[in-house]
Design goal:
By secondary structure, this protein is an alpha+beta fold. It contains four helices and three strands. β2 and β3 form a beta hairpin.
């Protein structure tokens, strides 16, 4: 069940600062997810760098909207306990992203 989910859109510098302050990672990233789930209720905060989304869209040769949709789903999947730290987990995460992206109406 969904409790509370928030998305905050930032630039690279702002998300980098969160990464340093809260995770002690001195790197750029496209997304940071804070999981506050309580039993079977999803609670979380998702922070997204629109700079990274834009750059990744170009690198992946997709539209900005397509990349943004993927990263929105990616953050929610983290709150649903999906991981992406090793190769096997990354494959499953990408499969789930692709599945949920396929449910979006096509323009």
């Amino acid at each position: 069940m969904l409790g509370k989910l928030s998305y905050t859109f930032l630039n690279d510098q702002e998300l980098h600062q969160i990464n340093v302050d809260y995770l002690q990672h001195d790197t750029l990233t496209d997304i940071i997810t804070f999981d506050y789930n309580q039993e079977s209720i999803v609670f979380g905060e998702i922070y997204i760098s629109l700079d990274r989304v834009s750059e990744n869209a170009v690198l992946n040769k997709v539209s900005f909207d397509a990349e943004l949709h993927r990263i929105l789903i990616h953050g929610l999947l983290h709150l649903l306990s999906y991981k992406d730290k090793d190769a096997k987990d990354k494959i499953l995460m990408t499969e789930k992203e692709d599945y949920y992206l396929s449910l979006l109406p096509q323009n």
